[in-house]
User: What shape does this take?
Amino acid sequence: MNNYLEQYKSDGFVIINEGVIESQTLDSCMNQIPLLMNNIYETGIPPRKVHNLGQPDKVIKYDQVHRSSIPFYELIKCKNLKIRLQALVGSNSLKVLATQLIIKPPSNSEGANIGWHTDDSVWNYLQGEVFTIWVPLTNVNEKTGTLEYVQKSHKDTHSFSKDDVHLTNMQTRENCYSINQSKIVKCNILKGGFSIHHRNSVHGSRNNTTDSPRVAFAIHVMTENVKIVPGLDDFGLAQNINSEIHHPTIY
Assistant: This one.
């Protein structure tokens, strides 16, 4: 586990390519997708926002899907994931800041990839330890349009804006931000594995060239060492910070 921690500190991300999360848990989440696509929410609470639903050549995103779907909430509470995170992160506590279900269709369209960005560009209202756990629900690789990281980019100063994630021409973004091709690492992750990345790590993903959608669940988390910056829009965080529906406790 110390090797994983050292890699995270050095590269800004770490890939846990092991069967940590049970297949049954992941399959239950996959089975929820047809319900979500038809606006059926088990809990009766809709996602905060749904992006691109009904547009087959664009990436579909569900914000805060864990409050709408019991299997996704249970994935957050997965015991094996909790144990791994406790050992790796070493904080006293870990809470969910936000979640995203990301469905990438098979498509060559520019709207079917995710531009280079950092998560920090949308977290200007937070100071401290915030990072992302990226959980694919099936095997992912270069052909499926898996997540890609720029190694050691968390140590650099970036000029990304919160809109860069929607600027989906990857080549244009690489030229604009002088992305070092030799430092790009593609996440080839088997079902049950996951990756973790720093809030300042540059990442994105290309088109899915297979015949099936690529589905991933992003869990944005925060430790006890987080402070909300006064005077900025915190999207209701301060109001709902103690709500286990909106911001579940992992440990």
